[in-house]
Amino acid sequence: MSTYDVIVIGAGPVGENAADYAHRGGLSVALVEAELVGGECSYWACVPSKALLRTGHAVAALRRLPGTKAEFDPAAVFARRDAFTGRGAAVQDAGQVEWAEGAGITVIRGHARLAGEKTVTVDDGPTLSARHAVVVATGSVPVRPPIPGIDQVEVWGSRDATSAQSAPARLGVLGGGVVGCEMAQAFQRLGSQVTLLHRGERLLANAEPFAGERVAAGLRADGVDVRLGQGVDAVAPHPEGIALTVGDEAVVVDRLLVATGRRPASDDVGVETVGLEPGTALATDDSGLVQGVPGEWLYAAGDVTGRAPLTHQGKYAARITGAAIAARAAGHPIDTSPFGEHAATADHRAVPQVVFTDPEVAAVGLTEEKARAAGIAVRVVDLPIAVSGSALHADGYDGAARIVVDTEREVIVGATFVGPDVAELLHSATVAVVGEVPLGRLWHAVPAFPTISEVWLRLLEAYRS
What we know:
The structure is a single chain. With about 475 residues, the protein is of the alpha/beta class. It folds into three domains: about 1-40 and about 95-140 and about 265-345, FAD/NAD(P)-binding domain; about 150-260, FAD/NAD(P)-binding domain, CATH 3.50.50.60; about 360-465, 2-Layer Sandwich (Enolase-like, domain 1), CATH 3.30.390. It has helices spanning about 15-25, 40-45, 45-65, 75-85, 95-100, 160-165, 180-190, 210-220, 310-330, 345-350, 370-375, 390-395, 425-435, 440, 455-465; strands spanning about 1-10, 30-35, 105-110, 110-115, 120, 125-135, 140, 170-175, 195-200, 225-230, 235-240, 240-245, 250-255, 255-260, 260-265, 300, 350-355, 360-365, 380-385, 400-405, 410-420. Strands 1, 2, 3, 4, 5, 6 and 16 form a seven-stranded mixed sheet that branches. A five-stranded antiparallel sheet has the order 17-18-21-20-19, sandwiched between helices. Strand 1, helix 1 and strand 2 (about 30-35) form a beta-alpha-beta unit. Helix 3 crosses helix 7 (about 180-190). The radius of gyration is 23 Å and the shape is globular. The mean pLDDT is about 95.
């Protein structure tokens, strides 16, 4: 049996951060990974999906300026994606392994499972024992809906879409969340004819309603056949591809991307050996301690907790978890007060997210609906993004902004921007929400001219009027 201070199961960005921060605190750490060090985000999610989107977005941006012509070669886009994901390299994750080992972390290959208190077994590897903590950072897995016939055909999951080497002539996309919207636009611009089917009445159901409406309009402008309020009733093989039964209509596609959500990946991690239910989220406190397991030794971070399933938010929680483990091991005080050193408070009130469609959606904090449901007295300010900076950015720039203000405290509790390149507005909004900056103070944060961030001045003027 090999013994370490900390064992981290899962070497995606979340596991890497938990391992790094625990090691910085003076602890020996083993990082166990069944696939590639770097995880889902690096090879099958965030990085390749944005690589597939970026060229099409850049070309569309150029076409919004007079006197420019722009085209692109889809094959070059796929090749650029491969360069980012290391596809074709002798060892695809060699750079990530080199980083971990250079940081003093022991990397172990194999599928890890809990085997009781502070014990982890590894397929084709050693049994590991932890002196202080085990961290589960296994992420999430796609959910496949129970549609008749779906198991009779070969469908794409998100990994298949981001790993594709060419665009199918006809692509069906099932689901109107972030993955469905982003991949629908990416493949439409790469040459597919895309049909997006979503049972809900609007895309991006967790965002402000106007965000989904504007993304739907952007997809349709690109030629995507967006069908809201329509799902797939049955799936069957077809001589020309895959037949989708949509009400009374048969839609034939060459590939079907199922993008109907994800769930915590806790099925095969051995959580039953410590009294937890496999296949469910590992509920944690704000320091990452898993609830329902005595002894303060089992931690979790990232998607597997079900808290805020986003890479950046998981990395944030992992940094806090790693630091909390190191502090407890050293006998130091733990600060779990709101926004304390060992409390992932932002998971509850200030989660930022970007949807990298065209138009982009950038949002942080509470929507109007969620703020009112929480009992907050709010005033909502809505404005078009129509400032000198946006006019110079693109002819016919079309964007919208909303802030949700707690009128009792006069602080912003939520903000949403929709439009070309609004992602760069998001961190200022995140700082305002996390810092609970009073609007009277925010009035003195002067936006530079001529930038799209001038919309902040217009929003505050509208609130003060």
